[in-house]
Amino acid sequence: xxxxxxxxxxxxxxxxxxxxxxxxxxxxxxxxxxxxxxxxxxxxxxxxxxxxxxxxxxxxxxxxxxxxxxxxxxxxxxxxxxxxxxxxxxxxxxxxxxxxxxxxxxxxxxxxxxxxxxxxxxxxxxxxxxxxxxxxxxxxxxxxxxxxxxxxxxxxxxxxxxxxxxxxxxxxxxxxxxxxxxxxxxxxxxxxxxxxxxxxxxxxxxxxxxxxxxxxxxxxxxxxxxxxxxxxxxxxxxxxxxxxxxxxxxxxxxxxxxxxxxxxxxx
Length: 267
Known about the structure:
- The chain is an alpha+beta fold.
- It folds into 2 domains: 9-52, no CATH class; 83-259, Galactose-binding domain-like (Jelly Rolls), CATH 2.60.120.260.
- It is built from 2 helices and 11 strands.
């Protein structure tokens, strides 16, 4: 025989309603406390959004003294018989009051000769982009090849042990064909034309991309990175000394491409 249950009184129904509401309120409060704990625990159930990437510093030029306003500070010239060092002069300059002057002597005693300056970069990020300006006031080639170039040279690190250095040579002007190179030095032609005479000319290249093209990848670690500004000849044919070239460099930049301050139409 089934027992019948007496209907709830109004007071019992109100009491049960209060109990249900309190139970749900407690459950919701517990979830509210639990969500930030889960999000911060790294368990992956409710991951917090990733932090925004740190923007590059506003002063992103990796070169010290890129406009030569502090004289030759930061720049060196190798102590080699076939290398002529640069000088810093107070005109002509592209920006500011000073520029690097590179005078290439035609010396029959050295079949190949280079003039220019070198700087080691202090960076933990491989440089993405290089730009700058050159000006040629005198250009008298008397060799099989005479040209302007900049070189990015990497020593040590994870590029391998077959060579102490790996470099890409960026031919800016003057070389119509390949210049002498080695297994661990590759070429990129920015221009094969003769240099413009008597005015400032812009040059640039994404150097990280160049390493990826020539070496399949850019290095992740290294012992040193150098940037070299050079005027050079190979295979001199003169039998007497002469001035082969008189060249200026100014307003160099190495860093992120989107922060490049130089523009091709800058006078």
